[in-house]
Amino acid sequence: MLSLNKVSKSYKIGTFGGKDLVAVRDVSFDINPGEVVSLIGESGSGKTTVGKMILKLISITRGSISMDGTDVSSIQGSAVKPYYRQVQGVFQDPFSSYNPIFKADRVFELIRVEYFADMVRSEWNDKVEAALRAVTLDPGQVMNKYPHQLSGGQLQRLLVARALLLDIKILVADEIISMLDASTRIDVLNLLADLKSRGLGILFITHDLSLGNYISEKTVILRHGAIVEMGATEKVFGRPTHPYTRLLLSSVPQLHKKWATIEAELPSPIGDGKGCLFHDAYPSAGRSVVPVPDEPTLAKIEEDHYVGCFGLDSEKATTQAA
Amino acid sequence: MSLQVSDLRVYYRTLAGDVKALDGVTFSVADKEIMGLAGESGCGKSTLGNSLIRLDGRMKYIGGSVKLDGADVPIWDDNEMIPFRFREVSVVPQYAMSAMNPTRKIGKMVSELTESRGLRFRDIKDELDRRIDLVGLDRDVLKRYPIELSGGMKQRVVMVISTLLDPSLLIADEITSALDVSTQRAVAETLVSFRDHGFVKSMMVITHDISILYQIADSILIMYAGKLAEKAATSTIIEKPLHPYTQMLISSLPEVGVRYRDKKLAGIPGSPPSLLDPPTGCRFRARCPLAFSKCVEEPSFVEVDTDHSVACWKVAGADA
Fold it and tell me: Which of A75, A314, B55, B161 is the most interior residue, by most CB within 10 Å?
């Protein structure tokens, strides 16, 4: 199980790094085996930053990430390798994830050299084939091909197969289907759902609420780096409580249901990073009309459903989430 | 009829041969109509949009005609198209971020643009300000550089600039694809308001996102592999599609409220054919679950109901 505990990331910006840009603030959630957690947010909400911190591609400013109880946020050098055997990522653009002059399946060879150098060749080939079958690819169709000869869906599935070779426990899937066509994206999405049933934990990072809703057990909604609402998917989508979540849900274009006439647009983030960011930017949406000095903490409003908003009824917000 | 396209063919010249990206496309867009154009990548939808405004060096005009408000549009001639562009036909490109000159303030850029068309900037300045108010931006944007605006703001500025001379046809190519859901909605609704205010007569909205089209379009045209598959009013396409491709495409869209646990959606197996050497007959045949012997012949795009045209033997076969 992977758990994030009050993870924050800030970047130094301005001349001589005089200012701080907080990209992620105090994000805590867990990913359990056999569970898809969707991390939903708009551009600039820090969702990709969270994914990169889990994959140790960027450092963590504050907080910690632990895998099965061991803190992995500070490990370095060769100690990272066992961690990467358990946690792998797949990214948005399948066409730029490959070296165009190497055959696409060479990504498997890199894994062999790095992690399975001692394995007998035939055993390795069986392993690769099993991984390809697991992502519903026909080895004959994809082996020995260059990236441009394969479709986006095939490339994306090859990357998932590569991650599976390592017997991973957690897969970070960062917008992996946004670049795919409508006719193939659902297959990759179903693949993730199949992997989940085999006990893989998946962090599904997306900006598309309908996709998150389709496959995930748990939903985390991020805005300007802070969690505004999280919990079981059916609760977050069924009873959205934070005004931001409601706004997002009302803006999603849906078939069979036209947009209701509500205010749709959000102003861009402003403010000094203190207090409720949503309130600053969008004062009329919250139920609370009093400006509040502190950042709201996540409050439990029902079993497995947490909301970070002051506008909640106070009796519901008594239990503070960890 | 505002726009009439008949049997338009545009190929791409490549070393390997001609890529038949647009292979005999016939349709029309009425006045005040927002027509959505949807399909997979590589189906020719952007080629169709681009060919109505400018054929670049790789694109080769093969045949067909385009009429806008009764007048022929000489799309095959780059120079003769100049009087049409911006005044009659205008485009909002996908990446508004790169559509503007980064070294000019937006106001300066607009004035250079209008003066290149022989118009004085101060004559249109009032109208420009009015339209900037209308899309909910501050008039100060004209004094700013493109980099100072967010993606949604830039997209709306480009929309205002593109429609400044009240063109008859506006082509919006994937304009919402790079935007967040809430901005997406604002931009899409701005498009509709442009039509309602009469800034543009008719519109072609090109996107791969059918759910956006459902929100804003009056009719939807589905393309597959360089040909038209189906065209009908939006509600008909969504509720009662006839072409198997449209049916599969729509049923593969996850919606808010559909869960994997309850209902497993399925994609369309296989991938679209190469347009370098497209298959004969129905091009969807290889992926179609309903394909039968007649599909080796090419189905024509026929009207099966009022304003509902389909290219499929299963649908049109009975009386064809």
Answer: B161
